[in-house]
Amino acid sequence: MRKKNDYASLILLLASLAVFAFAVWKLFGIYAEYRQGAETYEELQDYIEEPKENDDSSTSGDTTSEDETEDDGSGYLKVDFAGLKKVNPDVIAWIQIPALDISYPVVQGKDNYYYLHHMFDGQENKNGSIFVDYHNQPDFSDKNTIVYGHNMKNGSMFGTLDRYQDQSLYQEYPCFYIYMPGSMLEYQIISCYAGRNGSAGYTYSFPEPEDFQKFVDTVLAYSGYDTGVIITDSDHIVTLSTCVNTDRNYRYLVHGKLVQKTQN
Length: 264
Fold this sequence. Notes:
Radius of gyration: 23 Å
Strand content: 25-35%
Distance between the termini: 83 Å
Number of helices: 5
Strand order of the largest sheet: 3-4-5-6-9-10-8-7
Order of helices and strands: HEHEHEEEEHEEHEE
Number of strands: 10
Helix content: 25-40%
C-alpha cells in the first residue's frame, strides 16, 4: 500500500512540475513578445523628429544659430513618411496623443484582421498595429474615421487610452494629433466612454445628414463627462478604439473633432 502511495505522490509531483514548467514557458513567451514589440516600435521613433525647444538664454543680441534658423517653431512633429513607406507601404499617418505618451505610425490594411496580430514591420505579434478601419478613406476625410489599437497590459499601443476617463486629464490635454504626408490634423476630444463593441460609435457611413446628427447626439450622450464642444454637420470625427480588458464585449472609445488642419 505504501509503495502505491509513493507512486501516486511521485506522479502528482511530476504533474505539478509539468504544469509549473508550462506556466513558466508561457510567461516567457508573453515577455518575449512584449519585448519584441517594444523594440520594434522603439526603432520606428527614428522616423520622427521632435520639435526643438527654443532656449532664449543661449542667444544674445541679433545672433541666430543655424539650428534656430531651420526650426519652424511650429511645435509639431516631423515625420519621415518616405522612409516609413519603404518599411511598410500601408502606412497612412502617424498618431500622437501627448497626454498619454502615445506616438505610433498608423496603417490601413485590406481588412480589419491582419493588423490585429501583425506589427508595422509585418512580424506576427500580439501588439499588432495602430490601424484605420478598412472601410474608411485613408485621408481621414470621412465623417467618422475609426482607429483601432490594442489595450496592452504594459501600457503600449492604446493601453493607456482609458485614462481619459479622468476629466482633469482632458481639461489639461484636450487634443490629439494625426500627421499625414504634407499636413497635420488636430482633434479636440468631444466624448470618452466604455461602450459595447459594434455600438453607434463605430458608424462610418451616414447616407443622410440626420444620420450624422444622430451619431453625434448618441456619442455625446454616452460620454462620462460633458466636454462642452459643439458639433455641426460639417465636422469630421476620428474615433479611437481599444479593448476593455475586464469585459470582452466592451471597448473604450475616444471621439475627437477636427479643429485645425495645418500644411507642413
